[in-house]
Structure formats: C-alpha cells, structure tokens
Write the structure tokens for this entry.
Amino acid sequence: MSKMNAVCMRLRGGWWRHGAWCAALVVMVCAPATRARAVYMTMNAAKTDTGTVKLCVGLDSGGEKVAGTQNDLIWDSSCSNLKANSCAAIPDSKKPLHGNTPQNLQFTYRALVFALDNVDPIRDGLLYCCEFEMTAAGDGCCAIRFDRLGSSDPVGNALTTNGNPEKLCLASGVAPAGAPPAAPPAPAPKAAPSSGQWLWIVLIGIGVVLVAILILRGRSS
C-alpha cells in the first residue's frame, strides 16, 4: 500500500510540474511582445532669402498617439531675436498653435499645439515654424534650445517626450559641439497580431496542453 501511495504522489507531482510548464509556455506564446516607445520633438533651421532664419518644430511620435504637445524655445538674445508675429502652425498638422512670450521670460517662446474641437492623433512631421533675425556678425552658433517638453495622448495621459536635438545652432542649423547626439529615428511600430494569428496561437497552446496530458496518461498506465 505504501508503494502504491508513493507512485501516486510521484504521478501527482508530475502532473503539477508538467501543468505548470505548459501554462508558462502558453503564457509566453500568447503574451504580446512589449516595446519601448518615446515621443520626440524635433527642430531644424535654415536661412531664408531675406537673411532671417526659419526654425521649424516637428513631431516624431515613435508610434504613440499624440493629441497635443507643448514646448518652450529659449534662444541666445545676444545674437538673435524672434521676429514679431512670425510663428505659425503648419496647416496640414490640423492642430492650431497657441503660443506667446511669457512676460517674465523675454527670450522664451512658449508653444502649445492642440485643438479644442478634437483629440485626433497628430501626424508625424512639422508642427509650426518661427523666424529669427540674426543680430550678431559672422556665422557663430547662436544656440536655441528646447525646454518644458511634453505631450499627451487622446485621453490626456502624459507621454515621455524628448528633444531631437535638444539644442540647435540657428546660424548653421546643426547641433552645437558637445550637445547630446540626435536620437535615431523611431522604428515603425509593429502591427498587432490579427484575429487569425491569435487563433493559431491559442490552438498551439491547446495542442501543447493536450500532448502533455497524453504523455502523463501513458506514464500512469
């Protein structure tokens, strides 16, 4: 009798071990892969025919659904000035620009890009542009940088947001020496498994469990 009890205990232990292994395998097969995402605010600058510099701020969503953005532009007032009333939204972004220069921050432009009548995701690309007048002789760097970066999704959740680059030379349109390198373009998001793919994953999981049951039954016979 004691031998029979020992055999039953081993079989029961085997069931639990194999069942746990099968459950873990099904979870690994069925669980969707996670991937890191980040939203980037971009800026680029180029000289115009009139001698000013056109600075444009854009969005690289990294696959996130972005309904609104905010950022400050802070420039070196010793070599440049923001041209009055020069900042304007890019029409095809379909989101208006709400911007101003705070009274206590004279060399800062605060920009918010969002719509009051919709929370549709913003497409990747340029959001708005401003013109700067260069006041210093030569082609020195004359840096401008991002501050207070932020973005949110259509339900109001804050998204991790960085600058790409964080600082730019107005005169040359490139990042200044010693500035953090620009981040590489975000990879295109992978498509979620279709209903047909999920069906195959579930069937594979069921098959694994059935094979384990048959093996255990064969050992107990």
Q: What stands out?
A: Residues 18 and 182 are 49 Å apart (CA to CA). The longest strand covers residues 125-134. The chain has two helices and twelve strands.
